[in-house]
Known about the structure:
about 325 residues; mainly alpha; 13 helices; about 0% strand; disordered C terminus
Amino acid sequence: MVASGCRATCLRDPDAGLLDWVLLAVLVSLWGTSFLLTDLAVRHVAPAHVVTLRLVLAAVLLSVLALAMRRRWSLRPQVLLWAALLSACGNVLPFFLISWGQQFIDSGLAGVLMGIMPLATLLLAHFFVPGERLRRHRLIGFVFGFIGIVLLVGPDALLGLGAGGQALLGQLAVLAGALSYAVNAVLARRRPVADLWTLSCLVLFAGSLMSLPLSSLQPLPIAVPASAWIAVSLLGVLSTGVATLVYFTLVTRAGPTFLSTINYLIPPWALLLGAVFLDERPGPGQIAAMLCILGGIALARPRPGRPPSRAGAGSAPAPDRD
């Protein structure tokens, strides 16, 4: 998911052209498909290994492209520290939580639960980002989104009255991953100035190094079907690496306001893929909850004519989304 906001060079929102809509559709497919790929991968490969492999693949891909483009690498201690912090909150922790949670819940449900991320970002930004006030329409949008999450998880389960079990833990893990993305979005707005391409590479490399100890705690399984390895490879190369390239292109061309449209499209796309390829059957409650969450996102959008805040604005340098 994407939280609106970018530096002054990206604070523009021209009328979107055909290419912008094509890029948006590509990005929706890349990020939305990650839930399907994660579901296929964690059936045979431990979540920790899935996280490490996708980060390594994405880091190698972006680094090769950055070197080919002769981007300037900034290795200042401040940049390295922020790269590690952003990687922990925006890659390692959410990737692991979502991958672990998807062992117990449908991929479509995970995609819908991620809809809380832009709303949680608004709430955190109110307290930690200068100029990002939680105005009435944003507060109403957050309440609608929260109601959608309660409907999705189930009031009985949240109150501890239902069987819940592993399915409830899986949903809570995905929600925790979404909140981690929200924290990362706020932190990214306060990051030091650095080349976005090379900072993204540093973030991905830092994530690879941080995830290695976690994945080394358990051996990599030997008898893994080719479909699982293909899913992991696609997660790293497409849903993480290529998606970042498309993100950079789109946010530069059309600006963050147009890009925020993706928040409405990923949850239904994830539901559709789960239904078509995994035979998942979302019930009326899931559909109603998704509509409630998307309605909350719509209410929380910046009002027409109100310019986005430039105070501390910035976009996440490695906007990888599960």
